[in-house]
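Anyone able to model this chain together with zinc ion?
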Amino acid sequence: MGPSDSHGRVLFNQVLNSNDRTRAQAQGGGATSGNSKEKRFLCMFCNKGFSCTQKVEIHQRVHTGVKSFSCTQCHMHFAQAGDLKRHQRVHTGERPFACMHCEKRFSERSYLRIHQQKKHSTL
Ligand SMILES: [Zn+2]
Ligand SMILES: [Zn+2]
Ligand SMILES: [Zn+2]
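re: yes, here you go
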């Protein structure tokens, strides 16, 4: 019912001044022992609370611009999409690296090289 077409101008109200003092006194009693139980690791950007420091670091990437790629199959996170893609082969079973000497296939090139050195070491 009231004229509220521009509430930006009502920001500095005199009534708010007196209200603020009583509210500050009421809060002063137990404000310090409020939310320091479980989520005591705070984001340094938005003060959001987390239960462990690793979760804070992952969350803070939304502020720092570091892209976080999280696996949909497990709880692992990766900074690069390629790392996530490579990791997800453990879930999909994809093995693009085939040994040229036998039928074995591997999810990572380094595994293939180790295999070839072990099983087919012609060096
Ligand atoms: Zn944050
Ligand atoms: Zn995973
Ligand atoms: Zn082989």
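The pocket of zinc ion (ligand 1) is lined by residues 43, 45-46, 48, 59-60, 63 (CB under 6 Å).
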